[in-house]
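Anyone able to model this chain together with nicotinamide-adenine-dinucleotide?
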Amino acid sequence: MEGQQSPEEARLEGARVLVTGGAGFIGGRLVAALLEAGAEVVVADQRPHPDPAVRSVVGDLCDPDVRKRAVGTGPDGIVHLAAATSVLRSIEDPAGVYRLNVEATAGLLELAREQAVRRVVFASTNAVTGDVGDAPINERVPLRPLTPYGATKAAAEMLLSAYSGVYGMRACALRFANVYGPGMRHKDSFVPRLMRAAATGTGVQVYGDGRQVRDYVHVDDIVQAVLLAWRKGVTGPLVVGSGRSTSVNDLIEIAREVTGAPIPVEHVPPKAGEMPAVVLDISAARALGYEPRHDLRSGLATVWPDFAPAHRTGEGGAHGASEESGGRVES
Ligand code: NAD
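re: yes, here you go
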């Protein structure tokens, strides 16, 4: 990521950035990039940031006092990543997911307004737009979420829109595609499941015929988009993906090439309501200077070391699956 932007553009010297969810998968990469660019970072997360040198506010952001402590650190802006990210959980417990994804977001925006915080970059998802067949999804496609998770993200986007409209905040909602990259060993989305299958010599289950297409974007490209949105003070929604759609079958084929493992496939009936296609139009992000740098071959090669048996030390073998939070479905 570094070295491809001009140094002037890349530097964020002295910018004070509050990153909610900064101990998570995307947050971890983002915090490292922000620090590298010279920013002063505070992480607000229910888990401590793994690097004790990173200033952290540890607690549940559903708690107003935790939000106060976080925004009370005096940031110039907030990158709001903390969320309940499981689609499955959102179906089982929509009210619980609403509390964090909508209420806590509203609470953060209120504090930001009171304290004249100028920038908010929010992690939204392409799941806000629902099923539009294989038509490319751009920012003008109407919001029509199909799950409570998507609905909470759409609701948060509406709040952001109002706060940037009325209070002059530079608030943007980056609609991420399926994000993958290093640091997702404990996740249960498709890419880590593939990598685990390759590492343990087991197979993967594929819903339906595997011809459904998705946009898989590398976490470092997501980080690039967040930094860009921050530097340029982007407002409104922005679709952020790789700009390429790949079928599940092709993804498996690339994973076989990268890992050298056969990865047998078991086809199971399609999930109800699963979208046959997600095709993202990233031309608006491109017009702002965003350019994805990873394709799936180079991208999966950055993920494999987290899973490959030769790289796994101190874990008592290649089977890390017992650590997973079962049933978690990523957006
Ligand atoms: P993650 O689960 O790895 O990270 C989320 C972080 O938020 C975790 O560190 C968690 O501890 C923290 N958190 C959760 N609930 C909290 C609470 N109540 N109080 C304080 N902290 C809390 O998720 P991620 O993949 O890094 O996703 C980051 C953001 O990007 C989320 O908003 C997610 O909805 C969005 N997003 C992710 C993807 C993807 O494919 N990973 C796709 C679209 C959108």
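Residues 94-114 form the longest helix (21 residues).
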